[in-house]
Amino acid sequence: MTKRVTIAVGLTLAVLGTTGCGLLDLASGSGEDTGITAGLAELPQPDDGEYTVRVVDLDAATEAAGLERPTDLSPEAITAWVGPLSGMKRDDSFAPVIAPMPEVTNPRMAYQMQEFHDIAGWSAVDVTSYAEVVDLPGTFASLAGDFDDSTLEHLPEVADGVRTVGDGEDGRGDISRRTVVQPMGAPVRMAHRDGRLAVSSSTSDTEEWLEGGPESTLADDPRASALAEALDAQDVISAHLVVGSDFRAGAFAGTPGAAQQAGPLPEKPFDAVGVGWAAPDGEPRMVAVYHFADAESAEASVGPLEELFTDGRDMRGRELAETYGLDEVTSDGSVVTVTLGASRPGAAGELSSRLVRRDVPFQHS
Question: What is the pTM assigned to this prediction?
């Protein structure tokens, strides 16, 4: 992914993310390849090897949560849909899956979805499933939904087939031009192909997508692809992957004192993790996957991860077993897969939050 960003003032984006459960059909022009792996094949590789990915089937997640897609864009209707899928309590209960809206739809301003639609010609309500890579300050999303050539026809072109919301160079922000579509004032590039939209901070990435996709995708990254295959084997319908981050205890939050009470942590380092959600029979089912350097390290980490989920504590000293019921821990090649049930309400959303802040169980010693 090309990263060329100059922001007029110093701002830092905080990215929150989670995902859900089920099989997605994101393959270009094909109904054969489905799932998290197919989502990776839609996304360009970032430059530095550290990134966050979300692949979410919003239709499946909406059904699993017993929700209905809004028929209007009023703040009340949008909140009733977006809130539970993001982990918020609804009618004294929680949705069994986590399936947030795409980052490119500015979900923190979801109550302004009508304004988003007025500007872009579409909104998150029109998205049935999506794959998205966030490599701050850049982002790229491939959105499936009820889109056609007329969806973006009101927007000006910046390249052949590439439309834009906002003027200027890629990534060059002007805070005075901020809108709900351009939260940092930088232009947003969009394109339509085969009933899907590409939404990106990069003109070149969007052009490559229009031509059939980038030469090198996230499906070519062995870390991400191994995690995706493990999640697909569990039939998740929503997933959140963090690749290339530093998962050492205390490294992310910079709070080694708090990390001292966490654990016992696995000793073997992992360089990528993922979480997936499913809801068989309406009950929450969570999957955590870890990518290790080799098969030997993965196999050696099965026991420590089992101990962590049964007897371990997080950075606040809370027992993981109070929130998650361990089903099974297995290894296959360089990946360890942990399947979980919920010991208390809200467990699905809490697992997502733990990944965002790199709390246990997403730490090694």
Answer: 0.90
* DSSP structure class, residue 65: T
User: What is the bridge-based pairing of β-strands 172-173 and 6-7?
Assistant: parallel
**Alpha-carbon gap, residue 234 to 288, rounded angstroms:** 10
Whole-number CA gyration radius for the chain: 20
348 phi and psi angles, rounded to 5 deg: -60, -45
Which runs of E-coded beta strand occur in 123-252? 127-135, 138-145, 157-159, 162-165, 172-173, 188-193, 196-200, 238-243
* Whole-angstrom distance, CA of residue 229 vs CA of residue 212: 23
Question: Alpha carbon 80 to chain centroid distance?
Answer: 21
How far is it, in rounded angstroms, from Cα 346 to Cα 323? 8
Cβ-based neighbour number of residue 79 at 10 Å: 17
Q: How far lies 144's CA from each of 27, 126, 154, in Å?
A: 10, 9, 20
Distance CA 131, CA 34 (A): 12
DSSP string, 173-186: E-GGG--SS-TTS-
Q: Where are the beta strands (DSSP E) in 60-112?
A: none
Q: What is the pLDDT of residues 186-241, one digit of tens each?
A: 999 999 999 999 999 999 999 999 999 888 999 999 999 999 999 999 999 999 99
| Beta-ladder partners of 93 | 90
First-to-last CA distance in the chain? 31
The string of pLDDT tens digits covering residues 250-279 is 787 555 555 566 889 999 999 999 999 999
Q: Count the neighbouring beta carbons within 10 Å of the beta carbon of residue 216.
A: 11
Distance CA 52, CA 206 (A): 19
Distances (CA, A) of 140 to 95, 182, 214: 27, 14, 12
In angstroms, the CA 273 to CA 251 distance is: 15
